[in-house]
Amino acid sequence: MDKWVSSLEIPIKAKKELIKLLNGNKNFVNGTPTAKNMCLETLRKYAFHQEPYAVVLSCSDSRVVPEIIFDCGIGELFVIRVAGITAGPNVIESIEYAVKKLKLPLLILLGHDDCGVMKYAKDHYPNETEDFKSIMSCVYPVLDKNEDITCHNYFAQQHTIWVENVLLQKSKIIKQAVQNGELYIAKCHFDHSTGIVSLI
Hints:
By secondary structure, the protein is of the alpha/beta class. 48% of the residues lie in helices and 14% in strands. The protein is built from nine helices and five strands; from the N terminus they run H-H-H-E-H-E-H-E-H-H-H-H-E-E. Strands 2-1-3-4-5 form a five-stranded mixed β-sheet, with helices on both faces. Helix 6 (116-124) packs across helix 7 and helix 7 (133-145) packs across helix 8 (152-170). The protein is globular and about 50 Å long.
């Protein structure tokens, strides 16, 4: 994976951070975590400032915890968690804050297996649901493009790709940062059976 990532045309700073996270994921998978900054002493170090090196948009699913999956500790990741990694206005503005104010070079879009949002959407599409309307409005467009999707995990991956397009269309800050080589968006998928995070 490292050699493959190294061969990709990614801005140097973003590539460095992406390799760091994927190596951290290897630690997680192998059961050999190395993160040490998970104590009060670390928190005190960052009491009045923060210096994360990547922003992660992940699902709220209790099985998907970026800091654990990537073997990170306090102060390393700027994490935004929302059901189905759906990109509503507050989510987009949170990413914009990370890009514009914190100058983060890497955005991880982290979809995952067995996503309840994807299952719910597939079960109710194309009907308007009484509940979770805003979430479904973010997910249904993927099914609009391909109603024949049957695998929820494939659906989740296609939705991750869709989220990247939404961010680039709706956010001038994100789009400009990508165009200027200041931000790289890595579309990733978390496999529950292996614990591996793969690039889509």
